[in-house]
Amino acid sequence: MTPEVFVDIFREALKLIVFMVSVIVLPSLFIGLIVAVFQAATSINEQTLSFLPRLIVTLVALMMSAHWLTASIMDFTYRLADMIPQVIG
């Protein structure tokens, strides 16, 4: 295995991880920002008001993107398995 092949595989894996995490985290961050602005404007300092909407949005994002996330990781795994002869020989 040459270092270039290892770097390419590692780069692909990191890119996939970033895409998968961003699909889940970014909606939660946006909702958290909206709730924080609302809390700052109204001076409401309720802990559950900031936690519950983020939890719900994260769960909805997981439900909506679960098929794509699973298909992406399976595709990557299949490509890794197909590359085994190239890497070894």
TrEMBL record:
Membrane topology: Multi-pass membrane protein
Annotated transmembrane regions: 16-39, 51-70
Keywords: Bacterial flagellum, Cell membrane, Cell projection, Cilium, Flagellum, Membrane, Transmembrane, Transmembrane helix
Keyword Signal belongs to the record: no
Superkingdom classification of source: Bacteria
Keyword Membrane: yes
Listed GO CC annotations: bacterial-type flagellum basal body; plasma membrane
GO biological process, one term: bacterial-type flagellum assembly
InterPro entries: Bac_export_3, FliQ
Localization in the cell: Cell membrane; Bacterial flagellum basal body
Signal peptide region: none
Function: Role in flagellar biosynthesis.
Family, as annotated: Belongs to the FliQ/MopD/SpaQ family.
Protein name: Flagellar biosynthetic protein FliQ
Species the sequence originates in: Neiella marina
Higher taxonomy: Bacteria, Pseudomonadati, Pseudomonadota, Gammaproteobacteria, Alteromonadales
Gene: fliQ
